[in-house]
Amino acid sequence: MSEPLDPAGEAAAVDLAGEARRLDAADALAPLRERFVLDDVTYLDGNSLGALPVHVPARVDDVVRRQWGELRIRSWEESGWWTAPERIGDRIAPLVGAAAGQIVVGDSTSVNVFKALVAAVRMAREDVGDGGEGGGAVRDEILVDATTFPTDGYIAESAARMTGCALRAVTPAEVPGALGDRTAAVLLNHVDYRTGRLHDLPGLTRAVHACGAYAVWDLCHSAGALPVGLDEHGVDLAVGCTYKYLNGGPGSPAYLYVRRDLQPRFDSPLPGWNSHAEPFGMRSAYAPASGAVRGRVGTPDILSLLALEAALDVWDADGVSVAGVRAKSLALTDFFLRCVGAYVPAGRVESVTPAAHAERGSQVALRCDDAGEVMKRLVESGVVGDFRAPDVLRFGFTPLYVGFADVERAARVLARTLG
């Protein structure tokens, strides 16, 4: 068993525990905690899988028993199954700063990255006539975030092969200097999945546009945790998952954003009958539908899709806003870093998450030599975060259900685990 804190640490724990209680008492979002299925475990892994909203099981039961069990095929129309991808896209839109009609929900993040990236290259080449009559340079290069989640890199490599592009991996900070007249598309993460670093979406999007290329943003670690501003900042294309801060459930479908003025030119590399202008016409020739529907491919996963729709209801509660969630997120991560500094032995961990609010997502990543073993022991002690090789302890803070007492306890247990 690990040793308790030393006397000075115990005094600090009393003070910080008291502060946590005061912060929770003043927290306007605290009542939302009751809308989730939680227990005595301190759950700080919502950046991997969000907690279950309490009303979702009943909604899914209705989908299974009544909509599927009784109405059966009639539910495509009578229960709104057919229009669910766009309807739920419109529910997500305000959470990422987009107007309605620009987001379609379906498929995985990986599949949507592929659609977006190939479509971006095709539009870039169309802009300059691919070096032909348009007179511009050939757009034959894709830039990808060198720190990206591996799948984005794999997809970018495949998209580059398919389109005959060269692929260049650069850090987000290096993007402005790497752009050129051969750049077709740039794939970036809004928040680094390992460190929690928030990248400059407005500035990098402007830089990409200045060179005539298209920006594709991965919002997996930002949507539902902080403002994104897709429309405000003129983002071309964006993708994201829904099982993290949006609490859609394991494997819940991802989404694809296509800016409204680009929709007539969005040429998906995965045309399917669901995105056909006349899906039940059964034509042999493909004719794309108009609007965000072009992002659809095949039959949507209705059970997961409607579980996600139910989960999004928590955002309809009075007083809930992305701005408020962001304010609490920063307060939670600030408080966690303070508690870690007060409790954890000096030199035992190092934060790799930026201290500056403008550069921080909604997680804290701590470098620790034996991080894998430490996280196992934390989980055994009732504090759930996760481990990323080779040496990172990752703690995600979902403001809808994480409180300040959770944060203080997590830091205290971490200190004892490392003691």
Automatic annotation (TrEMBL):
> What cofactor does this one take?
pyridoxal 5'-phosphate
Catalytic activity, per the record? 3-hydroxy-L-kynurenine + H2O = 3-hydroxyanthranilate + L-alanine + H(+); L-kynurenine + H2O = anthranilate + L-alanine + H(+)
- GO BP: anthranilate metabolic process; L-kynurenine catabolic process; L-tryptophan catabolic process to kynurenine; NAD+ biosynthetic process; quinolinate biosynthetic process
Pathway(s) this gene product operates in, as recorded in its UniProt entry: Cofactor biosynthesis; NAD(+) biosynthesis; quinolinate from L-kynurenine: step 2/3; Amino-acid degradation; L-kynurenine degradation; L-alanine and anthranilate from L-kynurenine: step 1/1
Q: What is its EC number?
A: 3.7.1.3
User: What keywords sit in the KW lines?
Assistant: Hydrolase, Pyridine nucleotide biosynthesis, Pyridoxal phosphate
Q: Which GO terms describe its molecular function?
A: kynureninase activity; pyridoxal phosphate binding
- Residues where pyridoxal 5'-phosphate binds: T109, S110, F149, P150, T151, D152, D218, H221, Y243, W273, T299
Subunit relationships: Homodimer.
Q: Which NCBIfam families match?
A: kynureninase
> PANTHER family given for it?
KYNURENINASE (PTHR14084)
Protein task: Catalyzes the cleavage of L-kynurenine (L-Kyn) and L-3-hydroxykynurenine (L-3OHKyn) into anthranilic acid (AA) and 3-hydroxyanthranilic acid (3-OHAA), respectively.
The record ties this protein, via HAMAP family, to:
Kynureninase
UniProt similarity note: Belongs to the kynureninase family.
Q: Supply the name of the protein.
A: Kynureninase
Protein species of origin: Streptomyces parvulus
Q: Which gene encodes it?
A: kynU
